[in-house]
């Protein structure tokens, strides 16, 4: 699969016949009118997106308010992260990054003259553990931590600082204390919801008796991405947003302390990072006007029906399934493949989101499309079928990018900073050939004209960021070395 940077410059305008052309021109001559008509429900106008922006802005403000937070869909959890890396951090720091079926353990070393070195290893979370007992999940994590430390010959006599990225909705009450609000992304471990995940990890570490770690921070992946990009840009003070578009979708941003009414930390510092948890936007019905029958089916068949509806219209965990449901629906109406479907295409979850990226990355002759359809058991499709399938993919991914753009524009307009760097991580943003371009164009349309922004890809952002938060936490035990945000 090609990465985003390799695909830059190969973009072509699209959807001109639908009067929503914005600099893209994919060849849609072969796409049938009935497919175009059926896909209209997947295309969002600027008027619809502007309405969603207003609703998102209201939901964020409710999440920040002390009186309105309990009933708010978008919770806007305070992270208690108030300082960026400033280059004075020194030493070795561990990070644990849990956010999906795989998790990572990282070791970073910071030294003089901006010295930076990182080692990391990926571990799997078996399916039975994802939906088993919470104690089994944390015991598995502790086991993998022990393996990593042994493999890298780390000194276990002195407690190593550990930053913990926990990429699920987390209500924090301190830098080292956070309660799981709800599981997402296919996880459903018992005994964890409404519990302090730092305590659960500490207990698992203690049970092993061979680990000497000091948990200095818990954070989510969006916060880690923001911190990572702030470090990557030589301690830039205008990295105000962290954005995740991968298995899940979420954003964090820098907020004024006085606006974060639930914050009970250090109010001598003017700003704090807020984890929006905007994946839940629309769970109160605000998205109903733009949700399709495919979105409703995905939601109803999920492990958390009625929750994370915004995320389910965007993220990599669901995008491929939306495309598959549309293909099955249209084939059943004899509008694709002469009504013939394979068992693979009928199988829930069989059409991965990576297939969407592969199909849209086709340069000519539908080579990748034919390959994907063959893998799905569809042999000898017509060129019209290939064009129709690609068009469905384009509509689904374009909608995803535009929904993210609406949320991002709402944050940029609310902060009203004139120059902002947005750290972005996640497989959808990284691997989809046009997602970056789609987002930039739409966000510009929806954002105040005097606001300038840049999207920065953050490699290993969530894990690296966790180690950096741990490093900053240790650094700030010396009060003379703080370095806050420069936001107004």
From TrEMBL:
Signal peptide: none annotated. Keywords: ATP-binding, Glycolysis, Kinase, Nucleotide-binding, Transferase. Belongs to the hexokinase family. It catalyses: a D-hexose + ATP = a D-hexose 6-phosphate + ADP + H(+); D-fructose + ATP = D-fructose 6-phosphate + ADP + H(+); D-glucose + ATP = D-glucose 6-phosphate + ADP + H(+). SUPFAM superfamilies: Actin-like ATPase domain. This is Phosphotransferase. It comes from the Eukaryota. Pfam families: Hexokinase_1, Hexokinase_2. GO terms for cellular component: cytosol; mitochondrion. It comes from Acyrthosiphon pisum. Residues 241-472 form the Hexokinase C-terminal domain. Its EC number is 2.7.1.-. One of its GO terms (molecular function) is glucokinase activity. Pathway: Carbohydrate metabolism; hexose metabolism; Carbohydrate degradation; glycolysis; D-glyceraldehyde 3-phosphate and glycerone phosphate from D-glucose: step 1/4. Residues 35-230 form the Hexokinase N-terminal domain. GO terms for biological process: glucose metabolic process; glycolytic process; intracellular glucose homeostasis.
